[in-house]
Write a structure and sequence with these properties.
mainly alpha, globular
């Protein structure tokens, strides 16, 4: 995992906010900061004054759980095609996506199943829309279009990432959390319950492999293209002929919001 400038990260939280944040809030803020550092300036709205402005506009406060697409627009979004595909959304709304691309690339290079590669490619893309409980939001976004094991893994990776599993060599970076905040991480009750449920489920490894590949997806200076995954997407994503958002699926409204988050009604 990349090195973190502790002072720079804490500055993004705003004066006095650390004392009011739960352990979950702190853990989420730390991961989102890592992703923001990885994506670089291209991922931030034009005119941004830095990390602090990206998280909290002093003129118009935004919830920390809000994704970039729901922040006040500083420039128009590129228009979507009439019948948009997942690749269109990735390029026009989720890009640059370095974190998920690195995660999927590691899964691909280590010979993991295509559904794991696909899950890694999808698992954090919903953060562009919303950050709070992103595992559950992401699972709902993709459930109509992918193998149920993929969406299940996306849902529970949010809880599993905070728990080690020696059988696959996964150890959550408790030392990093402790160094930044000076305390141990204590998951909230709902995360603990989700972990216990997932740990005893037959699909447990679907989510665990996402967390494992996450560890190798914060490498600065490494850029991965979506091109190597086009065929995998074609085999593992049920693209509606009408285009995402036009197909009346249970999550079509989410795709329409991602396509045009600025529409008033």
């Amino acid at each position: 995992m990349m090195e973190i400038d502790r002072r720079a990260f804490l500055a993004t939280l705003g004066a006095g906010s650390l004392q009011t944040m739960s352990s979950e809030d702190k853990a989420e803020a730390l991961e989102h900061y890592l992703m923001g550092q990885l994506e670089g300036p291209k991922a931030r709205p034009e005119g941004d004054g830095g990390e602090a402005d990206a998280l909290l506009d002093q003129e118009n406060p935004q919830p920390r759980g809000t994704g970039r697409l729901l922040l006040p627009p500083r420039r128009p979004l590129e228009p979507m095609p009439e019948k948009p595909t997942f690749v269109d959304f990735f390029r026009l709304r989720f890009a640059p996506g370095n974190h998920v691309l690195q995660s999927a690339n590691h899964a691909l290079k280590t010979g993991q199943p295509e559904r794991t590669v696909m899950a890694c490619l999808l698992h954090d893309t919903v953060l562009e829309l919303i950050k709070a409980d992103h595992g559950w939001w992401g699972a709902q976004l993709y459930e109509p279009y992918v193998d149920e094991r993929i969406s299940w893994g996306i849902r529970y990776h949010q809880a599993l990432r905070f728990y080690p599993d020696e059988s696959v060599g996964y150890e959550y970076p408790y030392a990093l959390y402790n160094r930044i905040f000076g305390e141990d991480y204590t998951p909230p009750d709902y995360i603990q319950r989700a972990y216990q449920y997932a740990r005893n489920h037959s699909n447990y490894m679907e989510a665990r492999l996402i967390t494992l590949n996450d560890l190798y997806a914060f490498e600065q200076g490494v850029e991965v293209s979506i091109e190597p995954f086009i065929d995998i997407i074609g085999r593992n994503f049920k693209q509606p002929p009408e285009g995402l958002g036009n197909d009346n699926s249970p999550s079509a409204h989410m795709w329409r919001t991602i396509a045009d988050a600025n529409k008033p009604l």
